[in-house]
Amino acid sequence: MPQSPIRKLVPFAEQAVKNGKSIYYLNIGQPDIKTPKIALQAVKDSKIDTLAYSRSEGSEIYRQKISDYYKKHDIDVSHEDIIVTTGGSEALLFAFGSVMDVEDEVIIPEPFYANYNGFSIASGVKVVPIISKIEDNFALPPIEEFEKLITPKTKAILICNPGNPTGYLYSKQEIQKLAAIVKKHDLFLLADEVYREFVYDGNTHYSIMQEEGLEDYAIMIDSVSKRYSMCGARIGCLVSKNKDVIQTALKFAQARLSPPTLAQIASEAALETPQSYFDAVIDEYVERRNTLITELQKIEGVKVAKPKGAFYCIAELPIKNSDHFAQWLLEDFELNGETIMVAPAGGFYSTPGAGLNQIRIAYVLKKESLIKAVNILKEALKVYKD
Ligand SMILES: Cc1ncc(COP(=O)(O)O)c(C=O)c1O
Protein backbone atom coordinates (compact mmCIF):
# COMPACT_ATOMS: atom_id res chain seq x y z
CA MET A 1 0.00 0.00 0.00
CA PRO A 2 1.29 3.50 -0.82
CA GLN A 3 1.38 6.10 1.92
CA SER A 4 -1.11 8.93 1.54
CA PRO A 5 0.80 11.95 0.19
CA ILE A 6 -1.69 14.08 2.08
CA ARG A 7 -0.98 12.50 5.45
CA LYS A 8 2.56 11.17 5.24
CA LEU A 9 4.19 14.40 6.46
CA VAL A 10 2.07 14.52 9.62
CA PRO A 11 4.92 13.36 11.97
CA PHE A 12 7.13 16.20 10.65
CA ALA A 13 4.30 18.68 11.18
CA GLU A 14 3.76 17.41 14.74
CA GLN A 15 7.46 17.82 15.45
CA ALA A 16 7.43 21.35 14.00
CA VAL A 17 4.53 22.27 16.30
CA LYS A 18 6.40 20.77 19.28
CA ASN A 19 9.33 22.97 18.30
CA GLY A 20 7.05 26.00 18.58
CA LYS A 21 6.24 26.68 14.91
CA SER A 22 2.73 27.56 13.71
CA ILE A 23 1.60 25.83 10.55
CA TYR A 24 -0.87 26.80 7.84
CA TYR A 25 -2.35 23.46 6.78
CA LEU A 26 -2.81 23.55 3.01
CA ASN A 27 -2.30 19.82 2.64
CA ILE A 28 -5.67 18.33 3.51
CA GLY A 29 -9.24 18.82 2.27
CA GLN A 30 -10.65 19.32 5.72
CA PRO A 31 -12.81 22.44 5.35
CA ASP A 32 -12.97 24.92 8.23
CA ILE A 33 -16.63 25.54 7.27
CA LYS A 34 -19.19 24.79 9.98
CA THR A 35 -21.39 21.69 9.67
CA PRO A 36 -25.09 22.68 9.29
CA LYS A 37 -26.55 22.90 12.83
CA ILE A 38 -29.60 20.93 11.72
CA ALA A 39 -27.42 17.83 11.18
CA LEU A 40 -25.72 17.95 14.57
CA GLN A 41 -29.01 18.73 16.30
CA ALA A 42 -30.68 15.66 14.77
CA VAL A 43 -28.12 13.43 16.48
CA LYS A 44 -28.62 15.24 19.81
CA ASP A 45 -32.39 14.87 19.46
CA SER A 46 -32.37 11.21 18.46
CA LYS A 47 -34.18 9.04 20.98
CA ILE A 48 -32.15 5.89 20.48
CA ASP A 49 -31.99 3.32 23.29
CA THR A 50 -29.92 0.79 21.37
CA LEU A 51 -27.40 1.93 18.81
CA ALA A 52 -28.17 -0.88 16.37
CA TYR A 53 -26.85 -1.82 12.94
CA SER A 54 -28.77 -0.29 10.07
CA ARG A 55 -29.61 -2.15 6.87
CA SER A 56 -26.54 -2.99 4.81
CA GLU A 57 -27.70 -0.76 1.96
CA GLY A 58 -28.47 2.06 4.41
CA SER A 59 -31.71 3.24 5.97
CA GLU A 60 -34.58 3.20 3.48
CA ILE A 61 -35.90 6.61 4.44
CA TYR A 62 -32.44 8.12 4.09
CA ARG A 63 -32.02 6.53 0.66
CA GLN A 64 -35.41 7.86 -0.41
CA LYS A 65 -34.44 11.33 0.72
CA ILE A 66 -31.12 11.10 -1.14
CA SER A 67 -33.02 10.19 -4.32
CA ASP A 68 -35.18 13.32 -3.79
CA TYR A 69 -32.00 15.37 -3.43
CA TYR A 70 -30.70 13.92 -6.72
CA LYS A 71 -33.98 14.69 -8.47
CA LYS A 72 -33.42 18.34 -7.57
CA HIS A 73 -30.10 18.02 -9.41
CA ASP A 74 -31.76 16.52 -12.52
CA ILE A 75 -30.56 13.03 -11.63
CA ASP A 76 -33.42 10.58 -11.84
CA VAL A 77 -32.63 7.68 -9.50
CA SER A 78 -34.71 5.75 -6.99
CA HIS A 79 -33.67 4.59 -3.53
CA GLU A 80 -33.10 1.13 -5.02
CA ASP A 81 -30.25 2.53 -7.09
CA ILE A 82 -28.41 3.74 -3.98
CA ILE A 83 -26.20 1.96 -1.44
CA VAL A 84 -25.17 4.03 1.57
CA THR A 85 -21.50 3.58 2.39
CA THR A 86 -18.99 4.53 5.04
CA GLY A 87 -17.79 7.60 3.17
CA GLY A 88 -17.16 7.99 -0.52
CA SER A 89 -13.99 6.00 0.20
CA GLU A 90 -15.94 2.82 0.84
CA ALA A 91 -18.15 3.48 -2.20
CA LEU A 92 -14.98 3.58 -4.32
CA LEU A 93 -13.78 0.30 -2.84
CA PHE A 94 -17.18 -1.31 -3.46
CA ALA A 95 -17.22 0.00 -7.04
CA PHE A 96 -13.72 -1.34 -7.75
CA GLY A 97 -14.58 -4.70 -6.17
CA SER A 98 -17.88 -4.95 -8.00
CA VAL A 99 -16.72 -4.27 -11.55
CA MET A 100 -13.12 -5.51 -11.59
CA ASP A 101 -11.25 -8.70 -10.89
CA VAL A 102 -7.66 -8.95 -9.76
CA GLU A 103 -5.30 -7.78 -12.56
CA ASP A 104 -8.02 -5.88 -14.39
CA GLU A 105 -7.26 -2.31 -15.43
CA VAL A 106 -8.88 1.06 -14.76
CA ILE A 107 -7.95 4.12 -16.80
CA ILE A 108 -7.74 7.32 -14.74
CA PRO A 109 -6.81 10.82 -15.94
CA GLU A 110 -3.93 11.93 -13.74
CA PRO A 111 -3.21 13.77 -11.55
CA PHE A 112 -5.98 12.08 -9.55
CA TYR A 113 -7.17 11.80 -5.95
CA ALA A 114 -4.22 10.01 -4.38
CA ASN A 115 -6.21 7.32 -2.62
CA TYR A 116 -7.32 5.90 -6.00
CA ASN A 117 -3.83 4.37 -6.00
CA GLY A 118 -4.49 2.83 -2.57
CA PHE A 119 -7.97 1.55 -3.48
CA SER A 120 -6.58 0.00 -6.67
CA ILE A 121 -3.81 -1.79 -4.85
CA ALA A 122 -6.24 -2.98 -2.17
CA SER A 123 -8.47 -4.37 -4.95
CA GLY A 124 -5.58 -5.92 -6.90
CA VAL A 125 -6.44 -3.67 -9.84
CA LYS A 126 -3.94 -1.87 -12.08
CA VAL A 127 -4.24 1.88 -12.62
CA VAL A 128 -3.50 2.89 -16.19
CA PRO A 129 -2.91 6.64 -16.08
CA ILE A 130 -3.62 9.08 -18.85
CA ILE A 131 -1.87 12.39 -18.37
CA SER A 132 -3.83 15.63 -18.27
CA LYS A 133 -1.54 18.64 -18.40
CA ILE A 134 -1.32 21.83 -16.39
CA GLU A 135 -0.69 23.68 -19.71
CA ASP A 136 -4.18 22.55 -20.87
CA ASN A 137 -5.72 23.44 -17.50
CA PHE A 138 -6.07 19.64 -16.95
CA ALA A 139 -8.77 19.23 -19.63
CA LEU A 140 -9.80 15.72 -20.70
CA PRO A 141 -7.05 14.18 -22.85
CA PRO A 142 -8.06 13.43 -26.48
CA ILE A 143 -10.29 10.38 -26.94
CA GLU A 144 -7.70 8.70 -29.19
CA GLU A 145 -5.31 8.68 -26.21
CA PHE A 146 -7.88 6.75 -24.17
CA GLU A 147 -8.44 4.27 -26.96
CA LYS A 148 -4.71 3.59 -27.23
CA LEU A 149 -4.75 2.46 -23.59
CA ILE A 150 -7.73 0.10 -23.77
CA THR A 151 -6.76 -3.59 -23.53
CA PRO A 152 -8.82 -6.75 -22.95
CA LYS A 153 -8.17 -6.20 -19.23
CA THR A 154 -9.63 -2.68 -19.16
CA LYS A 155 -12.91 -2.67 -17.25
CA ALA A 156 -13.49 0.94 -16.35
CA ILE A 157 -12.62 4.60 -16.69
CA LEU A 158 -12.65 6.62 -13.48
CA ILE A 159 -13.01 10.39 -13.40
CA CYS A 160 -13.32 12.85 -10.56
CA ASN A 161 -15.70 15.70 -11.38
CA PRO A 162 -15.06 18.41 -10.22
CA GLY A 163 -11.54 17.18 -9.78
CA ASN A 164 -9.37 16.75 -6.78
CA PRO A 165 -6.49 17.77 -7.05
CA THR A 166 -6.94 19.87 -10.19
CA GLY A 167 -10.27 21.65 -9.65
CA TYR A 168 -11.13 20.74 -13.26
CA LEU A 169 -14.81 20.61 -14.17
CA TYR A 170 -15.72 18.32 -17.09
CA SER A 171 -18.06 19.83 -19.66
CA LYS A 172 -21.18 18.06 -20.92
CA GLN A 173 -19.34 17.46 -24.21
CA GLU A 174 -16.44 15.80 -22.40
CA ILE A 175 -18.82 13.52 -20.48
CA GLN A 176 -20.49 12.65 -23.78
CA LYS A 177 -17.13 11.76 -25.31
CA LEU A 178 -16.41 9.46 -22.38
CA ALA A 179 -19.89 7.98 -22.70
CA ALA A 180 -19.19 7.13 -26.33
CA ILE A 181 -15.93 5.34 -25.45
CA VAL A 182 -17.37 3.28 -22.60
CA LYS A 183 -20.31 2.20 -24.74
CA LYS A 184 -18.10 1.34 -27.70
CA HIS A 185 -15.71 -0.75 -25.58
CA ASP A 186 -18.25 -2.01 -23.04
CA LEU A 187 -16.57 -0.46 -20.00
CA PHE A 188 -17.93 1.09 -16.83
CA LEU A 189 -17.71 4.83 -16.29
CA LEU A 190 -17.07 5.60 -12.64
CA ALA A 191 -17.46 9.21 -11.59
CA ASP A 192 -16.46 10.53 -8.21
CA GLU A 193 -18.80 13.50 -7.78
CA VAL A 194 -18.22 14.29 -4.12
CA TYR A 195 -17.56 17.96 -4.97
CA ARG A 196 -20.76 18.40 -7.07
CA GLU A 197 -21.86 21.57 -5.23
CA PHE A 198 -18.45 23.21 -5.44
CA VAL A 199 -18.66 24.67 -8.93
CA TYR A 200 -17.76 28.29 -9.63
CA ASP A 201 -18.07 31.15 -12.12
CA GLY A 202 -21.63 30.33 -13.14
CA ASN A 203 -20.70 26.90 -14.51
CA THR A 204 -23.02 23.95 -13.96
CA HIS A 205 -22.07 20.44 -13.07
CA TYR A 206 -23.05 17.72 -15.53
CA SER A 207 -23.32 14.31 -13.88
CA ILE A 208 -22.70 11.02 -15.65
CA MET A 209 -26.11 10.03 -14.25
CA GLN A 210 -27.74 12.70 -16.44
CA GLU A 211 -26.39 11.22 -19.64
CA GLU A 212 -29.07 9.26 -21.47
CA GLY A 213 -28.14 5.77 -22.61
CA LEU A 214 -25.43 5.44 -19.96
CA GLU A 215 -27.67 3.73 -17.40
CA ASP A 216 -25.92 0.35 -17.61
CA TYR A 217 -22.43 1.82 -17.61
CA ALA A 218 -22.50 4.64 -15.06
CA ILE A 219 -21.54 4.33 -11.39
CA MET A 220 -21.50 7.48 -9.34
CA ILE A 221 -19.61 7.93 -6.07
CA ASP A 222 -20.87 10.49 -3.60
CA SER A 223 -20.31 11.69 -0.04
CA VAL A 224 -21.61 14.08 2.60
CA SER A 225 -18.04 14.85 3.74
CA LYS A 226 -17.43 17.97 1.69
CA ARG A 227 -21.00 18.95 0.83
CA TYR A 228 -21.97 19.60 4.44
CA SER A 229 -18.48 19.81 5.91
CA MET A 230 -19.19 16.49 7.63
CA CYS A 231 -15.95 14.60 6.94
CA GLY A 232 -16.14 12.84 10.30
CA ALA A 233 -19.64 11.47 9.71
CA ARG A 234 -18.21 8.87 7.33
CA ILE A 235 -21.24 8.67 5.07
CA GLY A 236 -21.24 8.39 1.30
CA CYS A 237 -23.03 6.36 -1.32
CA LEU A 238 -22.68 4.39 -4.51
CA VAL A 239 -25.32 5.06 -7.15
CA SER A 240 -26.05 3.09 -10.30
CA LYS A 241 -29.05 2.15 -12.39
CA ASN A 242 -27.31 -1.08 -13.34
CA LYS A 243 -29.07 -3.69 -11.16
CA ASP A 244 -26.18 -6.19 -11.38
CA VAL A 245 -23.77 -3.57 -10.08
CA ILE A 246 -26.08 -2.73 -7.18
CA GLN A 247 -26.65 -6.39 -6.33
CA THR A 248 -22.91 -7.05 -6.37
CA ALA A 249 -22.06 -3.95 -4.36
CA LEU A 250 -24.69 -5.04 -1.86
CA LYS A 251 -22.69 -8.20 -1.16
CA PHE A 252 -19.72 -6.03 -0.23
CA ALA A 253 -22.07 -3.93 1.90
CA GLN A 254 -23.41 -7.03 3.66
CA ALA A 255 -19.87 -8.23 4.39
CA ARG A 256 -19.16 -5.06 6.34
CA LEU A 257 -22.65 -5.20 7.92
CA SER A 258 -23.84 -1.59 7.84
CA PRO A 259 -22.91 2.07 7.50
CA PRO A 260 -22.83 4.09 10.75
CA THR A 261 -26.27 4.58 12.26
CA LEU A 262 -25.91 7.95 14.02
CA ALA A 263 -24.15 9.45 11.05
CA GLN A 264 -27.04 8.45 8.78
CA ILE A 265 -29.36 10.39 11.10
CA ALA A 266 -27.10 13.43 10.77
CA SER A 267 -26.83 12.99 6.99
CA GLU A 268 -30.60 12.64 6.57
CA ALA A 269 -31.14 15.89 8.48
CA ALA A 270 -28.36 17.59 6.52
CA LEU A 271 -30.45 17.13 3.37
CA GLU A 272 -32.72 19.87 4.73
CA THR A 273 -29.84 22.35 4.56
CA PRO A 274 -31.12 25.51 2.83
CA GLN A 275 -29.62 26.72 -0.44
CA SER A 276 -28.46 29.86 1.40
CA TYR A 277 -25.88 27.70 3.24
CA PHE A 278 -24.38 26.56 -0.07
CA ASP A 279 -24.52 30.05 -1.57
CA ALA A 280 -22.51 31.41 1.35
CA VAL A 281 -20.03 28.52 1.22
CA ILE A 282 -19.54 28.86 -2.54
CA ASP A 283 -18.99 32.63 -2.23
CA GLU A 284 -16.38 31.94 0.42
CA TYR A 285 -14.54 29.38 -1.74
CA VAL A 286 -14.61 31.62 -4.80
CA GLU A 287 -13.02 34.39 -2.77
CA ARG A 288 -10.42 32.00 -1.39
CA ARG A 289 -9.66 30.57 -4.81
CA ASN A 290 -9.29 34.01 -6.37
CA THR A 291 -7.01 35.12 -3.56
CA LEU A 292 -4.87 32.00 -3.75
CA ILE A 293 -4.48 32.05 -7.54
CA THR A 294 -3.75 35.80 -7.66
CA GLU A 295 -1.12 35.46 -4.94
CA LEU A 296 0.49 32.37 -6.50
CA GLN A 297 0.67 34.04 -9.92
CA LYS A 298 2.74 36.84 -8.37
CA ILE A 299 5.56 34.40 -7.57
CA GLU A 300 8.14 34.09 -10.31
CA GLY A 301 8.49 30.59 -11.73
CA VAL A 302 5.18 29.32 -10.31
CA LYS A 303 2.62 27.90 -12.74
CA VAL A 304 -0.98 27.31 -11.74
CA ALA A 305 -4.23 26.33 -13.48
CA LYS A 306 -7.32 28.17 -12.26
CA PRO A 307 -9.71 25.64 -10.68
CA LYS A 308 -13.34 25.70 -11.80
CA GLY A 309 -14.56 23.61 -8.90
CA ALA A 310 -13.71 21.69 -5.69
CA PHE A 311 -11.21 23.45 -3.41
CA TYR A 312 -7.76 22.41 -4.55
CA CYS A 313 -5.19 23.48 -7.04
CA ILE A 314 -1.98 22.07 -8.40
CA ALA A 315 0.91 24.51 -8.44
CA GLU A 316 4.09 23.86 -10.38
CA LEU A 317 7.15 25.23 -8.58
CA PRO A 318 10.71 25.98 -9.68
CA ILE A 319 11.99 22.96 -7.72
CA LYS A 320 12.97 19.38 -8.55
CA ASN A 321 11.47 17.36 -5.71
CA SER A 322 8.35 18.49 -3.88
CA ASP A 323 8.59 15.60 -1.38
CA HIS A 324 11.86 17.02 -0.16
CA PHE A 325 10.59 20.60 -0.38
CA ALA A 326 7.43 19.86 1.65
CA GLN A 327 9.45 18.14 4.38
CA TRP A 328 12.05 20.93 4.38
CA LEU A 329 9.26 23.51 4.85
CA LEU A 330 8.26 21.75 8.06
CA GLU A 331 11.71 20.86 9.38
CA ASP A 332 14.01 23.66 8.31
CA PHE A 333 12.04 26.73 7.33
CA GLU A 334 10.06 29.36 9.16
CA LEU A 335 9.03 32.96 8.61
CA ASN A 336 8.42 34.72 11.91
CA GLY A 337 7.70 31.39 13.58
CA GLU A 338 5.30 30.22 10.87
CA THR A 339 5.45 27.71 8.03
CA ILE A 340 3.13 25.82 5.67
CA MET A 341 2.22 22.21 5.11
CA VAL A 342 1.52 21.22 1.49
CA ALA A 343 0.90 17.91 -0.26
CA PRO A 344 3.67 16.87 -2.66
CA ALA A 345 1.92 16.11 -5.94
CA GLY A 346 3.90 12.99 -6.92
CA GLY A 347 1.41 10.86 -5.00
CA PHE A 348 -1.43 12.17 -7.18
CA TYR A 349 0.14 10.50 -10.21
CA SER A 350 0.85 6.88 -10.92
CA THR A 351 3.34 7.59 -13.72
CA PRO A 352 6.74 7.29 -12.01
CA GLY A 353 8.47 10.65 -11.71
CA ALA A 354 5.42 12.70 -12.74
CA GLY A 355 4.38 15.71 -10.68
CA LEU A 356 7.65 15.89 -8.76
CA ASN A 357 7.87 19.65 -9.25
CA GLN A 358 4.24 20.18 -8.22
CA ILE A 359 2.35 20.54 -4.98
CA ARG A 360 -1.34 20.37 -4.21
CA ILE A 361 -2.82 23.22 -2.22
CA ALA A 362 -6.22 22.93 -0.52
CA TYR A 363 -7.80 26.36 -0.12
CA VAL A 364 -9.67 25.43 3.01
CA LEU A 365 -8.34 28.35 5.07
CA LYS A 366 -9.58 31.89 5.41
CA LYS A 367 -8.44 34.52 2.89
CA GLU A 368 -6.08 36.26 5.35
CA SER A 369 -4.39 32.96 6.20
CA LEU A 370 -4.04 32.07 2.51
CA ILE A 371 -2.27 35.38 1.82
CA LYS A 372 0.15 34.73 4.68
CA ALA A 373 0.65 31.12 3.57
CA VAL A 374 1.50 32.07 -0.03
CA ASN A 375 3.91 34.70 1.26
CA ILE A 376 5.66 31.98 3.25
CA LEU A 377 5.86 29.87 0.07
CA LYS A 378 7.35 32.83 -1.80
CA GLU A 379 10.02 33.48 0.83
CA ALA A 380 10.78 29.76 1.14
CA LEU A 381 11.37 29.43 -2.60
CA LYS A 382 13.94 32.26 -2.41
CA VAL A 383 16.15 30.28 -0.03
CA TYR A 384 15.35 26.63 -0.88
CA LYS A 385 18.09 24.64 -2.62
CA ASP A 386 17.12 21.36 -4.33
C1 LIG B 1 -12.17 13.10 -4.77
C2 LIG B 1 -12.46 12.47 -3.48
N1 LIG B 1 -13.13 11.33 -3.46
C3 LIG B 1 -13.42 10.70 -2.31
C4 LIG B 1 -13.00 11.21 -1.10
C5 LIG B 1 -13.31 10.44 0.13
O1 LIG B 1 -14.20 11.11 0.91
P1 LIG B 1 -14.99 10.46 2.10
O2 LIG B 1 -14.54 9.06 2.28
O3 LIG B 1 -14.69 11.32 3.28
O4 LIG B 1 -16.41 10.54 1.68
C6 LIG B 1 -12.27 12.41 -1.07
C7 LIG B 1 -11.77 12.96 0.19
O5 LIG B 1 -11.02 13.90 0.25
C8 LIG B 1 -12.00 13.05 -2.29
O6 LIG B 1 -11.32 14.19 -2.34
UniProtKB/TrEMBL annotation:
Its EC number is 2.6.1.-. NCBIfam families: PRK07568.1. The lineage of its organism: Bacteria, Pseudomonadati, Bacteroidota, Flavobacteriia, Flavobacteriales. This is Aminotransferase. PANTHER family: ASPARTATE AMINOTRANSFERASE (PTHR46383). Residues 26-335 form the Aminotransferase class I/classII large domain. Its cofactor is pyridoxal 5'-phosphate. Belongs to the class-I pyridoxal-phosphate-dependent aminotransferase family. Keywords: Aminotransferase, Pyridoxal phosphate, Transferase. It holds the Pfam family Aminotran_1_2. One of its GO terms (molecular function) is transaminase activity.
